[in-house]
Amino acid sequence: MAEHRSMQRAALLDAARSLLSEGGTEALTFPALAERTGLARSSVYEYFRSRAAVVEELCEVDFPLWAAEVASAMERADSAEGKVEAYVRQQLALVGDRRHRAVVAISASELDAGAREKIRAAHGGLVAMIVEALAELGQKEPRLAAMLLQGVVDAAVRRIELGAAEDPAAITDAAVTMALRGVGG
């Protein structure tokens, strides 16, 4: 029974990722989840109390995987500048990933205070990854610089997500250039 519930929950999360990728948070509804998984709508409520709970769980599951990919890219870099570039490029490379859509959906979703706090903490872990490299580059306030750097990444993500006139590669290159010119001591 526990294995069946676990499989159903995983199917619901996968359906939620698809819905978010296809139509953003507006597409993530319980009737749509029920239709995608073949469950009765009332059964979806047995797994999640609200749309916000679905998004929160997606973030709990997907954000660590996403962050691990960023960390891995940074570990392969051999300099502080290389780590900054990897931090920016890897996050922007993940924009098309269905897992990333769930993370992006957070800002547009109606989450309760507890969920927002969990997500802020996870996001803080991502920002913390770059603090040491920024300190190596001579930043007097590396934590503040890391938060501002993440702001550049977030703006580039939004630009790519909007389907801006610029090519995603051009947006990524511009964000890397801004980051590298802006983080020097």
Report on the architecture of this protein.
The structure is a single chain. The protein is an all-alpha fold. It is built from 9 helices and no strands. The protein has helices at residues 2-27, 30-37, 41-47, 51-76, 80-93, 98-105, 113-136, 142-161, 168-182. It is elongated and about 55 Å long. The mean pLDDT is 86.
Q: Would you summarize the structure shown here?
A:
The chain is mainly α.
DSSP helix fraction: over 70%
Rg, rounded, reads 18 Å
Q: By helix and strand content, what is the structural category?
A: mainly alpha
Distance between the termini: 57 Å
Elements, N to C (H/E): HHHHHHHHH
User: What fraction strand?
Assistant: under 5%
Describe the largest sheet. none
Poorly predicted residue ranges:
none
Helix count equals 9
Count of strand segments: 0
Task: Please tell me what the overall shape is.
Answer: elongated
Mean pLDDT: 86
